[in-house]
Specification:
The structure holds 2 protein chains of 2 kinds. Chain A is mainly β. In chain A, strand 7 and strand 8 form a beta hairpin. Chain A starts with a strand and ends with a strand. By secondary structure, chain B is mainly β. Chain B is built from no helices and 11 strands. In chain B, strands 2, 4, 5, 6, 9, 10 and 11 form a 7-stranded mixed β-sheet that branches. Chain B starts with a strand and ends with a strand. Classes of the chains: A mainly beta, B mainly beta. Chains A and B meet through strand 5, strand 6 and strand 11 of A and strand 10 of B.
């Protein structure tokens, strides 16, 4: 079945460092891909999405590009802030079924 | 715009007591509705989803149940809570099964 694999955390960075959180998926066809962010004690917020190959989703300085050839949707940000500390979930929807990765905890230190 | 509410925000219940968590959506009609559970430090587990009033699908066997008495209301219940029911419960909605899911603020349940 369809699945999402994302890099295990936790990830700890200094403020203004470059962030990459890897996400790869397994699915036949063309799923829609998502990144969600969960701040402490809160629900999941949609961060960005891409619905077809080579699409780039972007929001709040975060970016991810839908790479069909590598079945990947890596999350990147050029300069992280302390306020970006959260858990990040990669997810896909395919054939009306949504799958989430296990989540990656990011801590940004001042 | 659409908003999703969950009530209560936090709940502490003794083992064996009943449970009722409520989720309501505003600003849309006939949404798909979902209940997820997130155990401490773990990912999301889909518990139930509903595509319409009175239509509930269960993803995992458990002592929880769900109901959808109104178009934009989704309720998660239990007759007798277990310690293992502790967790963070998230409700979500979408326009259809193929569309983006939007999450509520969650309910933190602690069973003692």
């Amino acid at each position: 079945g369809d699945s999402v694999t994302q890099m295990e955390g936790p990830v700890t960075l200094s403020e203004e460092a470059f962030l990459t959180i890897n996400c790869t998926y397994t699915a036949t066809g063309y799923p829609s891909l998502f990144w969600y962010v969960q701040y402490p004690g809160e629900g999941l917020q949609l961060l960005l999405k891409a619905t077809k190959a080579d699409d780039k989703g972007s929001n709040k300085g975060f970016e991810a590009t839908y790479r069909k050839e590598t079945t990947s949707f890596h999350l990147e940000k050029g300069s992280v802030q302390v306020s970006d500390s959260a858990v990040y979930f990669c997810a896909l929807i395919h054939n009306n079924d949504m799958r989430f990765g296990a989540g990656t905890r990011l801590t940004v230190k001042p | 715009s659409q908003t999703i509410h969950q009530w209560p925000a936090t709940l502490v219940q003794p083992v064996g007591s009943p449970l009722s968590l409520e989720c309501t959506v505003e600003g849309t009609s006939n949404p798909n509705l979902y209940w997820y559970r997130q155990a401490a430090g773990r990912g999301l587990q889909l518990l139930f989803y509903s595509v319409g009033i009175g239509q509930i699908s269960s993803e995992v066997p458990q002592n929880l149940s769900a109901s959808r008495p109104q178009d934009r209301q989704f309720i998660l219940s239990s007759k007798k809570l277990l310690l293992s029911d502790s967790g963070f419960y998230l409700c979500a909605w979408s326009v259809s099964s193929a569309d983006t899911q939007y999450f509520g603020p969650g309910t933190r349940l602690t069973v003692l």
